[in-house]
Amino acid sequence: MDVLRYTAFSDSPDGGNPAGVVLDASGASDEEMLAIAAEVGFSETAFLMPAGSATEGDERDAATRMTVRYFSPLAEVAFCGHATIASGVAWADRHGPGTLLLDTASGEVAVRTQTKDGLTTATLVSVPTTTKALSDADLDTILQTLRWSRDDLDPAIPPRVAFAGAWHPIIAARTRERLADLDYDFDGLGELMADRGWTTTDLVWRESPTVFHARNPFPPGGVVEDPATGAAAAAFGGYVRELGLVGLPATLTVHQGVDMGRPGLLTIDIPAEPGTGIAVTGTAVPI
Fold first, then answer.
1. Could you give the number of structural domains in the chain?
2. Which of residues 62, 95, 125 is at a domain's end?
3. What is the pTM of this model?
4. Nearest to 142, CA basis, from 175, 170, 177
5. Vertex 240, ends 231 and 109: CA angle to 5°?
6. pLDDT (tens digit, 9 = 90+) per residue, 246-256?
7. b/e map of 203-237 (b: 16 or more CB within 10 Å)?
8. Short-list 263, 236, 257, CA closest to 179
């Protein structure tokens, strides 16, 4: 298999979140895909397999349908946003801009690509979103593993668990300094997340009504921190809509990876209709 390496949500190879991309993984076994993801060593590698052309509606007729599976170095994950953005750009680099319809374990995700001034941008539209309560016991465990207290939380952005293809607890810091000081119990948080089926923990700080900063611990994938997390961004967009934190429709900007020295930029477009998919946009470039 031809394994490509892209970084998503950045126009520089030194920024964003690296992902492996295999544009044709036909016939690969689960064991082979996991072994390749471990060898690549990025937080996720996407494996695409041709699934024919779409047949519903004019716009979908022009789309290419693919099945996609995502593997971290340790396990398969249901959905990965940054590897989806990387896959869309990698596909466009070889076949030209257009639309991919990706059949993921969580449902269909559409990816639209466009190229301008030599830079390709991809927009994914997530599966329908869901937000649910985070129990006090789970919140206490998360805070204990993060070495945070309840006084560190922003009371205007309450803890929840959100879904847009994968589940993410959302925890908002009161200050940028609290977000910047990330030193957590990897094994402790990983055990809770694995038990609950959560993918990353989405830690956020609000700079302004529509500008946020984020960090995403990812111990279930064997990764201390994800530099730019499209799946969490989509889940966060659904959370913001459900809690009415902004006027709708809305566009949010999320800065992630800054504290890791790999700055990335994610754009979240939130439609007003409850539960509908969230659009996440970013660039990607080969490494």
1. 2
2. 125
3. 0.94
4. 170
5. 30
6. 999 999 999 99
7. bbbbeeebebbbbbbbbbbebebbbbbbbbbbbbb
8. 257
